[in-house]
UniProtKB/TrEMBL annotation:
One Pfam family cited in the UniProt record for this chain: DUF294_C
InterPro entries: CBS_dom (IPR000644), CBS_dom_sf (IPR046342), cNMP-bd_CS (IPR018488), cNMP-bd_dom (IPR000595), cNMP-bd_dom_sf (IPR018490), DUF294_put_nucleoTrafse_sb-bd (IPR018821), GlnD_Uridyltrans_N (IPR005105), MgtE_transporter (IPR006669)
Lineage: superkingdom: Bacteria
PANTHER family, alphabetized: MAGNESIUM TRANSPORTER MGTE
Signal peptide range in chain numbering: none
Protein name, per record: DUF294 nucleotidyltransferase-like domain-containing protein
PROSITE patterns: CNMP_BINDING_1, CNMP_BINDING_3
CDD domains xref list: CAP_ED (cd00038), CBS_pair_CAP-ED_NT_Pol-beta-like_DUF294_assoc (cd04589), NT_GlnE_GlnD_like (cd05401)
Domain Cyclic nucleotide-binding: 11-127
Amino acid sequence: MSTDFNFQHPPFDQLEPKQRELVSSNLDIHYFQSQQKIVTAGAQAASLFIIIKGQVEERADNNDEVFAHYTLEDWFDVRSQFGGYAKHDYIALEETLCYALPSQIFRRLVSENSDFGDYFQRDLATRHQLVESREGNKNLAEFILTTIDERNVQPAVVIEGETSLQQATLIMREQKLESLLVNHDGCFGMLTGTDLLHAVVLVQQSLDTPVCQLANFNLISVNKGDFLFNAMLLMTRNSIERVVVKEQQKIIGILEMAHLLSLFSTHSHVLALRIARASSIEELSEAAHTLNKLVENLCNNGIRTLFIMKLLATMNEQIISRVFELSIPQQHHNHICLMVMGSEGRGEQIVKTDQDNGLVIEDGYDWPERQQQLHQFSDYLLELGYPPCPGKIMVNNPEWVQQQSQWSDTIAKWIETGHGDAMMNLAIVLDAHAIAGNKSLLRRLRKDLMAQMANRSVTLAFFAQPALKFHTPLTLFGNIKTKQAGLDIKKGGIFPIVHGVRALALEHSIGPTNTLDRIEQLALLKVLDEDSAANLKEALLLFFKLRIQQLFPAEDEQDYHVLKLDKLNHSQRDLLRHGLHVVKKFKQLLALHFNIRDY
């Protein structure tokens, strides 16, 4: 009997008081020496083991293949509890203590408590949601998941376009407003206190001037029911302080950034305004170097990983666009397109990444000082904390700065080559996202790329092959001998999903670059079934989440692709194992779909 068992970890936290008593009264504690076999393949299940101390390896009975590694508060072997016999050996790697819960007690709990039983049989997406609900994600997460409604929308006060500046000022003062809506011949515009101040003090407009001459009629709107977070992103991207709120195309109010900032303590919009207003690289640097702190604050306050990535992508886009404006003269902007690639192009960064960028130039456009200005652009990004790309995929490398027709020829050569670096270069361009200049130049290039790849099944197979290159690290758990060992989650988990989904997206001419968006499109086209799509999305978000959680706090620089397994709690290790199984299954699907042999 044991009274020290931890009932706070899922799914044991789902047990009723009497069921907890049943567990405590039937638990035994077993001691195993290093290299002692705990469970033998083929043996009938007698107990579910939960580790108190030590490490256990799951291994094939011929000792040739290691399947998994278990440590503090992990359990094994769940499969045999339902199937009757163990498929693999379980061996202590060091002196190990385990709780042993008799199998008949475990099966009784599964049958009596559906929440407890479902945990062991649910797919990754459902299990991840269960753990998320246990962890809470409160505080700032509550703000981010709050929808726009009457509670956070300021009622719109509408005045007629012929109202004078003096009358509008009195209305603002009496009703303590910062903005008014102006109705002029059925069109609505917005008038702010700043507009009035500028008109009277700087331009010295007459107080009798009708407000229709000052109002901004290019309104940006959000819909009632949308997330506050999305409204914040919209204001950030457009460097504005307020948006109108609509319900079924009717304006019902105004949402102001001042109110959002009172709810959202990270003040990300303040950072965005500093970026937009920076008139020198020194001013921009001060804002850019606070970006990691913003991410840390979001992470520490429980904000969901998907929202962190969206916000970081928006902020990085703002910074790089501003560098573009500070280094490339305005007269060139309509003839060139700056594109970012890699995780930036997909909007999947969790930290500031390398400089993965390139340029598309309008055919025939003459730009004599191009190289000097593009070198300045790259140097500025370096000052802001964006390191050079190891593969030199940067605008200061002429190979990644080409006119439209040259890009088309280059892509055609990559496609004809059909393997090696040519395929990875094609993957890089496929993820390109336009952030400055004439963005239509990249849209035409992507359309050309999709057309050139149509019906090229052999080339697509070569393109998809790198997704199968790295072994799924389920077999690497057994090689971890010290607490300092880690797991490269980029190679083992993230890259196979990202590149495999990218290959399927290319095959079906799917436009979005974000991996989660691509998965949704593949599910709509029935290329992926709903369960597979949901599990792939959850696995990818889990891998990103585990990476970002180990970034903060950090005392020194580290490879953030490497997960420190001793830093993960029981639920995280359990989810990680299931996420890696999702990757392994997806790789099998890719090999079959693209007819890739020797996998």
